[in-house]
Structure formats: structure tokens, C-alpha cells
Amino acid sequence: MKVAIASDHGGLTIREELKSLLEELKIEYVDFGCDCNASVDYPDYALPVAEKVASGEFDRGILICGTGIGMSIAANKVKGVRCALVHDVYSARLTREHNDSNVIAMGERVIGPGLAREITKVWLLSEFSGSRHQTRLDKIAQYELETSS
User: Fold this and answer.
1) Could you say which of 9, 34, 83, 98 is catalytic?
2) N or C, which terminus of the chain has less Cβ within 10 Å?
3) pLDDT (tens digit, 0 to 9) for every residue of the chain, 149 residues total?
């Protein structure tokens, strides 16, 4: 598995914690920034990660900002990305099992580093269950095809 990870200035602490987790799990990753405490624009970090995941260059993406909301909105603008905003372990597991999410977003001002590690580990290790859930994802993919220009 290969993971793209990024944060804006509001997610630096959790991003560093999650990089340590990825190393512990021996999961290859690339850090797409940001590298400063100054205010930056979250789309500048969310969109490149989402594009890398959508292209297949990376299997999964992890995004962190203050609330996770901005990152998730931006990432979901990229065709083929299913970014879930998660702040608990149960949602993290189900978004993989039911929605085959390929990107997650979290908020550093909402959760702490310990919970972020638990969420990420469960999300990374959970598998898509397919079956009836695939039909739903197919409907989303079809809509993306029909509405793309």
C-alpha cells in the first residue's frame, strides 16, 4: 500500500503523528506538506493528494486540517475520490467496509493525536466488503461519468 498524506497549518501535529504510525506499520507514504505554521490554503494540499489517489499513483490519502471539513470538501471535487470526514473509529471502519473510501480527512482541532492514530490504523487495515455496497458505488461512478465535461 502507498499513502499520500498532507495537512494545512491546522493539522501539522497530527500529520507528524500519523507519519510515525505509517512507519510503524511499514506502509510507504509521501508527505505533500505543508511545512509551515503560517496560514495556508487547504485546497493547495487536498487537491494534489486527491489527484494522486484518483490517478492510481497512490492507494490511499490522508488529509488533516483544523476541522477536516475543508479538506474533505476539496478532495471530493476530484473525480474518483471518496473522501470521508471521520472523527471516530467506528466511522473509519465503516467508510472502508461500506463506502470503499480512498481518502480520509480529520480535524486536529476536533480530535487528538492518539485518536487520530487509532482511526487511521483501523481505516488502513479495513477492507471493502463489496456486495450490495458495490452497487451503490457504481451509481456514484456512473453519475460522475454522466456529469463530467
Assistant:
1) 98
2) C
3) 999 999 999 999 999 999 999 999 999 999 999 988 899 999 999 999 999 999 999 999 999 999 999 999 999 999 999 999 999 999 999 999 999 999 999 999 999 999 999 999 999 999 998 888 999 999 998 998 898 86
d(CA 129, CA 66): 31
Q: Decide: helix, strand or coil at residue 107.
A: strand
Burial of 115 (0-12, 13-18, 19+ CB in 10 A): middle
Q: Which of 9, 34, 65, 83 is catalytic?
A: 65
DSSP classification of residue 22: H
- Which segments within 14-117 are labelled E, that is strand? 28-31, 60-65, 83-85, 103-107
Q: Quick one: which H or E segment has residue 146?
A: helix 132-147
CA 11 to chain centre: 13
Active site residue 65: yes
Identify each DSSP E strand in the chain by its residue range.
Answer: 2-7, 28-31, 60-65, 83-85, 103-107
